[in-house]
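User: When convenient, might I ask for sequence and structure tokens for a protein?

AI:
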Amino acid sequence: MNAHSDWYNDIVKKIDELKNTLSKREYRRFRLDLLSCVADRVDQFSSECTQCMSFRQDVPTLVADAGNLAQTGDRQGRKSYHRDMNRIIGHLQRQHKLVNEGYYVGLWMAIGTAIGVAIGAGFEEVGSGIPIGVGIGVAIGIALDAKAKKEGRILCPRETTRRFSKTALALLIVVGLLFVAGILAFILFERMA
């Protein structure tokens, strides 16, 4: 990403001030790290997108609202805050083709599961087809996620210093369990035949 504007630097400064004043729970509840990434992307696209230019007025309001709502606890205000934030994120995803990290892995894992069921049904071993399909789906998803990251289309890239994210670790565990379940199902079906 290129140099940031004064507008973005002001937003980050205000978010950092909130980080020092809000509890960790409130900071996460208002997704202020994500709001910082959204502000970065709005700043990046505002020169070429009129909608993003108008969002430059909405983002500072969201930052101010986060601080106010944390103190008042207004439930309707929180809903409005999240609705406005999701509206901006939806625009970035639809118009600028940004995706969340791991988006394609989740999508293709589901598609791979369906393919695995079809493969398993074809071999009359549904249980053994699922891990195969999940493996294929995860492989395709990882490749597409890597491509999106290389193209800079990740909405909020995480720090590269972490070795495994919690999501990746959970995904790895789920795939491993599905693989073991597939093998056990295959063994059980073989004994029954």
